Amino acid sequence: SKVINSRAGLHITYRNTLTTVCVPRYGLKGAVYLKNREGQVVSERQDGGCDWQTGSLQRYLDHITTTTAAGTSTFNLFQHITVRISVQLSRCHSDTIRLEVVSNRPHQAPETQVQTSQPQGARGRSQLVQEVVRQAEEASQQAEEKRGRASKLSTEEREFRQSKCPNLYSLLEEVRELALLDLAACGAGGGGLGAAAQACATSA
Question: Alpha helix locations (H) across 29-165?
Fold first, then answer.
């Protein structure tokens, strides 16, 4: 799998061994497993990070608890956590997005990113302006290419969409004319079939 990023997630629903997490930053919603096939459960460390350990899982109405030798971890409904976003590659099926619990605490952006980042609204407007400018440049370039191609066309090609000879149409016309020739008339002067064929070929 290919890791994309780590972002803030929000528990929105619970099932037997997993929780559905929403990632508002990217508009993603997917399943995050709290218990794997080996029977291991997600356990929270003292620093808030999570890892897999042997234990049990108990689901309640508004939260899930995992119990291991290190203690009990609680995952509450509508709790902000940090998830790792990765792409699960597959040869037989299409690639899928995978979400994994990284920390049972809200995502903290690096200090440099916090200082240099713009407000969400300003960043969105900047991206919108860049997209509009890019589309305008592409449209202008396509218009110039069309004008360049049009200037190279003759009057017949521009008005009647005719292509230059020789083309398939002219070749078919020649074949049709040859088929309409009267071999008897071509060979009337004598000389046999060879002379007739030569005369027809000359007239063609």
Answer: 111-116, 120-151, 155-160
